[in-house]
């Protein structure tokens, strides 16, 4: 079958389950054929062989069931990096790049800072910061062993030797370490009863990386309580959080004695990142 005809049928199959049906289909076929998506515009009349069609249709069927494209491809772009991903952890999202931007805005690029990323997952935040701050040392921790192994592979793939990863339940494995100048986290922050957990791609992502008790605030509050024990003077603590949690996060930071507490909006205009300074 011609590529343009194959893609047209794929768009129609995916249109009811994806807002990006055309892109999804192109990415899956490009993955099967080992080409860029630009190839489809240059050679639309090219024939796709039976074996490649079978592989494509298999991926397409999995996408129809809602499985995220990133899991099907095994990788996802984040910041300036292409990262390996797996179902053991969340897929990096564009809004999380806002956390990286805010982190870079409070750090001196000419200074060797110590940075901690709590709940690192793929290592996306830690590795983005390590790539932008080569003089700094970045430590990422995650509760899930497979996630730590994945983050290590991503660091090796991008030759980011200033980033390291350890298995830890938040700060548990960090006793006696040097204090950090910045602690960042994209922790679980979704209420367990949130109806969105049963919709879309998020159905396939690990609930342990999504859900927190106390209306999604439990892990954020736990981190705020313990973070001062691991922070250097004038260090910053910052979170990605839910679109409706900024006021609660600001209140928790202020009650814990943090100053310069401020929230920042994501690319959709929602309060998404909140920071506080420890003195």
UniProtKB/TrEMBL annotation:
HAMAP family: RF_methyltr_PrmC. One of its GO terms (molecular function) is peptide chain release factor N(5)-glutamine methyltransferase activity. This is Release factor glutamine methyltransferase. Keywords: Methyltransferase, S-adenosyl-L-methionine, Transferase. Its EC number is 2.1.1.297. S-adenosyl-L-methionine binds at residues 119-123, 142, 170, 186. Methylates the class 1 translation termination release factors RF1/PrfA and RF2/PrfB on the glutamine residue of the universally conserved GGQ motif. GO terms for biological process: methylation. It catalyses: L-glutaminyl-[peptide chain release factor] + S-adenosyl-L-methionine = N(5)-methyl-L-glutaminyl-[peptide chain release factor] + S-adenosyl-L-homocysteine + H(+). The keyword Protease does not apply. The gene is prmC. Substrate binds at residues 186-189. Residues 112-243 form the Methyltransferase domain. The keyword Methyltransferase applies. Belongs to the protein N5-glutamine methyltransferase family. PrmC subfamily. It comes from Marinomonas profundi. Residues 5-74 form the Release factor glutamine methyltransferase N-terminal domain.
């Amino acid at each position: 079958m011609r590529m343009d005809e194959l893609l047209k049928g794929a768009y129609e199959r995916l249109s009811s389950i994806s807002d990006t049906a055309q892109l999804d289909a192109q990415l899956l076929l490009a993955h099967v054929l080992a080409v860029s998506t630009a190839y489809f515009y240059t050679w639309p009349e090219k024939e796709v062989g039976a074996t490649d069609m079978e592989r494509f249709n298999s991926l397409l069927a999995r996408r129809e069931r809602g499985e995220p494209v990133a899991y099907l491809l095994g990788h996802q772009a984040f910041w300036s990096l292409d990262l390996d991903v797996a179902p053991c952890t969340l897929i990096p999202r564009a809004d999380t790049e806002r956390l990286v931007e805010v982190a870079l805005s409070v750090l001196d690029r000419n200074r060797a800072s110590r940075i901690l990323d709590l709940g690192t997952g793929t290592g996306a935040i830690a590795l983005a910061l390590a790539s932008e701050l080569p003089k700094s040392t970045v430590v990422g921790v995650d509760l899930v062993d497979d996630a730590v192994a994945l983050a290590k592979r991503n660091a090796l793939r991008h030759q980011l030797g200033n980033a390291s990863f350890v298995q830890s339940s938040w700060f548990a494995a960090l006793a006696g370490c040097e204090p950090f100048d910045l602690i960042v986290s994209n922790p679980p922050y979704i209420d367990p009863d949130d109806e969105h957990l049963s919709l879309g791609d998020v159905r396939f992502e690990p609930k342990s990386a999504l859900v927190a008790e106390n209306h999604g605030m439990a892990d954020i509050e736990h981190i705020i309580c313990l973070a001062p024990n691991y922070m250097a003077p004038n260090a910053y603590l910052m979170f990605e959080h839910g679109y409706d949690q900024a006021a609660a996060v600001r209140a928790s930071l202020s009650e814990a004695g943090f100053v310069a507490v401020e929230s920042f909006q994501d690319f959709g205009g929602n309060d998404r990142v909140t920071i506080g300074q420890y003195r």
